[in-house]
């Protein structure tokens, strides 16, 4: 029994070699990810079936008296029985590929076993498809595991030879002769098969994990390099940033001979060996004679002639050319130099492809950020252009009038106008400002309005304490107040009222609610549904009316979402209401109300 166990375990070595080779088949990963289709089932049934046939051939023959092995078995006599590890391949097929693959591999192995003949041929043939199918059904309980653990496989592998022994006894015409055989081979077969299955799964797990760890390591390294290179790339590709990037890559990539950064036409920086021929002012590899790799822009150059540096003793014999794209346009290139072409392994190629995508994506993000900043600045400038001209001209006209009748008031008005213009320029540099800064601009505007509409307009301003630092988009409050004064109170000669309230929402203290009311003529019903959503035709026919309100609404939505959009309504007693809500940090201090009422004399 001991000798038979050792002999069967020796045969398992063949399966371990097969397991290692199996992990090198690319399509094998689809099987492990349970991406099973007809092609996968047929191909892997054939692969595991061939493993089963090989394991069967590596078995031991029992002729009723002794065990012996041969080089190749073509047929067995009526009193001979083949004891092999063919069940190992069939069980593994079921565990990895499910019932379909297990049944397919079992049928192929069973068909070959049937052609050999021998004693108890029915049991030897039937056990393979049955075992493969049952192993596949069992694997469904562990489908969350990519490869079943060796410990579980060890116990599952015990049932296959036990079933084999039971079938021997069921199909045996002479049980008295079969029982001694089962007693002799039962334990060695159980031990060798279960250990073989466990080792088989362990080999597959280790091989795959090692390969995936290596790929993950290269990915992490590419991310790390790309992240470290980002501050340099933000400053643009020039001599200094190129030198820092080249030194960074040369330091991190220990298996490359040198690194160069170019603008596509000339070398901006070089770090490593071969600087005399390929450094700044040196030559670039002949890209027109390079070979493309994959679907990206990565290319490879090899050979002394194609390196084209003119130095016969140049140590650089191969290179990977990594293009750098920004918004689809090639803006530079990173060159990884090697001393021999054989040093360019799949790992280096995968790293280079990942680095190309990461750097290009980061440059696209930087370009998008710059475009966003320019767009934001343009929006603010556009909003300022909407606010300032007519307001400035009216104010200057008022100052010119006051200079003759009330010079002191004219001086005060000039001071308020300067404060308004100064705060406007300060606000234009940020996308969000503290509420107290936005409030300064609004108060400067209200002081000017107080003089312009003396005795005709009353403005009431209420702001809850503790919300001074709430971030708000600049040029938000003043355009809304101006809209109420210029349009809502346009035809009101006396008794105009504008109320401004800034408070935390009663239901949700994390929201700041801004409400602006007037007692004017209200918003025309045909404009109300689209106000703030799009500019509407002005009296001149151009689609520019309501541009200030539209800009405020769009910036609120872009920064805080749909919940921050402007809401418009007409008051039953006359006039209109415009309101919006933005996020507001919750303060631990007790909120108190502050009401400021400005009466225009």
From TrEMBL:
Nucleus recorded as keyword: no
Gene Ontology CC annotation, any one: plasma membrane
Protein name: Two-component system sensor histidine kinase LytS
Species whose genome carries this gene: Planifilum fimeticola
GO molecular function, one term: phosphorelay sensor kinase activity
Topology in the lipid bilayer: Multi-pass membrane protein
Region feature Disordered, mapped onto this chain: 271-291
Compartments it resides in: Cell membrane
BP GO terms, sorted: cell wall organization
Taxonomy, superkingdom: Bacteria
Pfam families named among the record's database cross-references: 5TM-5TMR_LYT (PF07694), HATPase_c (PF02518), His_kinase (PF06580)
Domain Histidine kinase/HSP90-like ATPase residue range list: 472-586
Keyword annotations: ATP-binding, Cell membrane, Kinase, Membrane, Nucleotide-binding, Transferase, Transmembrane, Transmembrane helix, Two-component regulatory system
Transmembrane regions: 12-32, 44-62, 82-114, 120-142, 154-172, 184-208
């Amino acid at each position: 029994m001991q000798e038979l166990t050792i002999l069967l375990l020796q045969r398992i070595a063949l399966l371990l070699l097969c397991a290692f080779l199996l992990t090198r088949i690319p399509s094998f990963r689809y099987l492990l990810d349970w991406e099973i289709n007809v092609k996968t089932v047929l191909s892997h049934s054939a692969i595991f079936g061939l493993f089963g046939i090989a394991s069967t051939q590596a078995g031991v023959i029992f002729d009723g008296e002794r065990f012996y092995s041969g080089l190749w078995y073509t047929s067995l006599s009526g009193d001979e029985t083949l004891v092999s590890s063919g069940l190992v391949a069939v069980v593994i097929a079921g565990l990895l590929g499910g019932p379909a693959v297990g049944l397919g591999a079992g049928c192929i192995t069973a068909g070959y076993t049937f052609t050999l003949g021998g004693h108890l041929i029915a049991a030897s043939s039937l056990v393979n498809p049955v075992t493969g199918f049952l192993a596949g059904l069992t694997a469904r309980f562990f489908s969350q595991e990519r490869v079943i653990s060796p410990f579980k496989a060890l116990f599952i592998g015990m049932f296959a030879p036990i079933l084999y022994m039971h079938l021997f006894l069921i199909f045996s015409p002479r049980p008295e002769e079969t029982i001694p055989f089962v007693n002799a081979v039962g334990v060695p077969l159980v031990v060798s098969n279960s250990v073989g299955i466990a080792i088989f799964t362990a080999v597959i797990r280790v091989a795959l994990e090692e390969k995936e760890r290596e790929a993950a390591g290269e990915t992490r390294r590419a991310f790390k390099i790309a992240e470290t290179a980002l501050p340099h790339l933000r400053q643009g590709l020039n001599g200094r940033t190129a030198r820092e990037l080249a030194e960074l890559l040369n330091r991190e990539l220990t298996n490359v001979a040198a690194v160069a950064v170019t603008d596509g036409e000339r070398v901006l920086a070089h770090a490593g060996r071969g600087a005399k021929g390929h450094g700044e002012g040196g030559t670039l590899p002949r890209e027109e004679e390079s070979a493309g790799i994959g679907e990206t822009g990565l290319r490879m150059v090899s050979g002394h002639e194609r390196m084209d540096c003119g130095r016969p003793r140049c140590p650089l014999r191969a290179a990977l050319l990594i293009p750098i794209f920004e918004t689809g346009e090639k803006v530079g290139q990173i060159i990884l130099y090697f001393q021999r072409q054989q040093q360019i392994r799949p790992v280096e190629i995968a790293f280079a492809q990942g680095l190309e995508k990461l750097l290009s994506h980061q440059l696209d993000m930087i370009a998008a950020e710059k475009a966003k900043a320019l767009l934001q600045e343009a929006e603010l400038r556009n909003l300022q252009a909407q606010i300032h001209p007519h307001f400035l001209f009216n104010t200057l006209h008022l100052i010119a009038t006051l200079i003759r009748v009330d010079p002191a008031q004219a001086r005060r008005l000039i001071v308020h106008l300067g404060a308004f213009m100064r705060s406007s320029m300060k606000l234009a540099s940020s996308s969000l400002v503290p509420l107290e800064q936005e409030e300064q601009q609004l108060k400067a505007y209200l002081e000017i309005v107080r003089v312009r509409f003396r005795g005709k307009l009353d403005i009431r301003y209420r702001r809850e304490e503790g919300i001074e630092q709430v971030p708000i988009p600049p040029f938000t409050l003043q355009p809304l107040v101006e809209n109420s004064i210029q349009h809502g109170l346009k035809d009101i000669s006396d008794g105009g009222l504008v109320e401004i309230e800034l408070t935390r929402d009663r239901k949700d203290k994390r929201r700041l609610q801004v409400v602006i009311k007037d007692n004017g003529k209200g918003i025309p019903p045909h404009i109300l549904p689209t106000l703030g959503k799009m500019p509407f035709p002005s009296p001149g026919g151009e689609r520019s009316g309501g541009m200030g309100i539209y800009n405020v609404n769009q910036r609120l939505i872009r920064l805080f979402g749909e919940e921050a959009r402007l809401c418009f309504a007409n008051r039953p007693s006359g006039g209109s209401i415009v309101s919006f809500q933005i996020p507001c940090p919750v303060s631990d201090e007790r909120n108190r109300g502050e009401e400021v009422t400005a009466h225009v004399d």
